[in-house]
Design brief:
Blueprint: E1 2-10, H1 26-43, E2 47-54, H2 65-73, E3 77-86, E4 92-100, E5 104-111, E6 121-129, E7 132-140, H3 146-167, E8 176-180, H4 189-198, E9 205-207, E10 224-228, E11 232-239, E12 250-256
Parallel strand pairs: 1-2, 7-8
Antiparallel strand pairs: 1-12, 2-4, 3-4, 5-6, 6-7, 8-10, 9-10, 11-12
Helix pairs in contact: 1-2, 3-4
Amino acid sequence: MARVRIVTFNIAHGRGLSPIQGMTTRRRIRTTLLKISLLLADLKPDIVALQEIDENSLWAGNFDHLEFLREFGGFEHSVFGINTRRAGLLNLSYGNAILSRHPIVEWENVAFGQRQIGEKGFLFAEIDIHQRRIPVANMHLHYRSRAHRFQQVDRFLAYLHDKQRHRHAHWAVPPIVCGDLNNTHSSSDATVTLLSHLHDYGDYTLHPQTGYTFPSPMPSRRLDFVFLPPGVTRAESHIVRSFLSDHRPVVVDFEIH
């Protein structure tokens, strides 16, 4: 039996609570990321799913945020899923990422489109935890368009169906799915749709079930989730009170037998 802790956290490009991207100094971004790494070290997760993390972007200090967090957070393994990439004077390179204390044995990134700014996608990884292969999908959906979110969920589900046919024999459980789903104020559209389709693979549970994650100073919306698959037990979750991003991190603990 393995007890596992996963954290999902949209770190907002390291800008903290600054409302405008690109108006934060490199030094301030490094300070914010250092605080995030200390928070992660204190939470002691096995896996961290990160959204809005930069590899080398002018507006985020032109350095590798993932490597910074890996080093200062004390993680042995990491993988980047770049969804937005633009060269030139206004260079951008960012997306989703995973930090892990356990080996990442396979991974693949899927961008939903080819826009040079604001593109979303999902990162799929298989992580070896005590000789059990755990699949994890880290996603970030469109922040404005409900129609785009539904299209993105459909694309993810088609990918998952193909993976399930070819890889499920290697998995200890069906995929853990997490990330920033960007629901609207009035509807949990993408969350409800995704959860209903994940039930095709068994009895998934949604975490957190109460509380809000955005905006972090006075949260009124729940955007950040972990979908736990059948085969895990004794799940517990909580939202961390933190002001290091406009999102609050979500922590979920569970056991795999």
